[in-house]
């Protein structure tokens, strides 16, 4: 079962601004010195620009949460985590969004705490949060729910 991420206008705006700033920084030499085009420096600017834009776009667009037989597969761009259901100890509603490991695109998120994670938890923002939590509890009924409002 696959859950898509919830999309929030704030996060969409932040990612768009980040991509624009990255493009501006990389392409700044073109604005300062149009001679860069004639000296063959265009490839040295365009290739990194395309790579950075593609990477940031991939990170922002390719976010999903997949329930597999034994694990919850959390994926965001190149970042992937396999969380065994029996390792999940707690779900926190309304977590701190600005620190930690998070694969989100919305402020309406939950934090999944698990024993084997390097950081101990991951913040996710499934579009159908209640159904997502119900599915986690169905697979591990010892999960505690904490509401941090």
Automatic annotation (TrEMBL):
<feature type="transmembrane region" description="Helical">
    <location>
        <begin position="37"/>
        <end position="61"/>
    </location>
</feature>
<feature type="transmembrane region" description="Helical">
    <location>
        <begin position="12"/>
        <end position="31"/>
    </location>
</feature>
<dbReference type="Pfam" id="PF06713">
    <property type="entry name" value="bPH_4"/>
</dbReference>
<feature type="domain" description="Uncharacterized protein YyaB-like PH">
    <location>
        <begin position="64"/>
        <end position="140"/>
    </location>
</feature>
<dbReference type="InterPro" id="IPR009589">
    <property type="entry name" value="PH_YyaB-like"/>
</dbReference>
<keyword id="KW-0472">Membrane</keyword>
<keyword id="KW-1133">Transmembrane helix</keyword>
<dbReference type="GO" id="GO:0030153">
    <property type="term" value="P:bacteriocin immunity"/>
</dbReference>
<keyword id="KW-0812">Transmembrane</keyword>
<protein>
    <submittedName>
        <fullName>PH domain-containing protein</fullName>
    </submittedName>
</protein>
């Amino acid at each position: 079962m696959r859950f898509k991420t919830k999309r929030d206008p704030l996060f969409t705006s932040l990612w768009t601004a980040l991509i624009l700033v990255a493009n501006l920084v990389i392409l700044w030499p073109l604005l300062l010195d149009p001679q860069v085009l004639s000296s063959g420096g265009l490839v040295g600017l365009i290739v990194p620009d395309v790579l950075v834009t593609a990477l940031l776009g991939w990170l922002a667009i390719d976010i999903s949460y997949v329930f597999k037989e034994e694990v919850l597969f959390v994926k965001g761009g190149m970042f992937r985590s396999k969380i065994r259901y029996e390792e999940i100890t707690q779900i926190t509603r309304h977590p701190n969004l600005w620190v930690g490991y998070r694969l989100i695109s919305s402020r309406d998120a939950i934090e999944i705490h698990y024993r084997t994670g390097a950081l101990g938890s991951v913040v996710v923002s499934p579009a159908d949060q209640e159904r997502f939590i119900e599915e986690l509890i169905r697979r591990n009924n010892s999960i505690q729910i904490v509401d941090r409002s």
